[in-house]
Structure of Precorrin-4 C(11)-methyltransferase:
Amino acid sequence: MKVYFIGAGPGAADLITLRGSRLLGTAPMVLYAGSLVPAEMLSHCRPDAEIHDTAELNLDQQEALYRRAQAEDKDVARLHSGDPAIYGATNEQMRRLEALGIAYEVVPGVSSFTAAAAALGSELTRPEVSQSIILTRTSGRASAVPETESIASFAAHRATMCIFLSGQRLKQTVADLALHYPPATPVALVRRASWPDQSVHRSTLGKMLDEVKQKDWLLTTLLLVGEALSREGGVESSLYAAGFTHIFRDGDDRKTKRASLQKENQA
């Protein structure tokens, strides 16, 4: 018996990994976060799977299901939104499984922050603009953010930031960012990335609050900020430049020298 923590991806049913889909199709018991994972994702499950929505269950109730699966020698697919490693609430489950002597495995998934970048058609890292991405969130009732990880302190780096759960504290979040990012800094709100009702709003830090209604962005919203989101051209990466060489490709200059040496040797 084994528990598989599977990243369901950001929402679209076809953004689960092949491995995740295969394991869902074989597991006799499935636990999924119904508040965040769309019901369409359950189409990957086997027809006779026993399915439980964990939005309605506390941790003790979920542990009871793991205990029963252990007694019945049934594998369990535990379906989490996005990637289980990011705000997945998996650690406490894993510790309980270890105490019960139940083996588990983690299957990575597509995170909503990469789905948001895809929706924007943006690369989050750009040469000489930002080579770092800060993933953080606003504080919530279920889990507070440590003071040392405040949005204001991260903003001082002026790297690309992806802020989860930002919709309910949008005004304060913008105020914290404005301590360090200029008003003209590009920002974007992405709600329910990859879902059929996905919403996107592009703006600048100084204008965004005047353009949106906070009530429209309360749940499952990511706020992305940073110069990397700019539509304007910038410095191109040297990776594919004609003169850039590496172990897999000669640059134009090296090719010319090699051709010249070959001619000399043939002569």
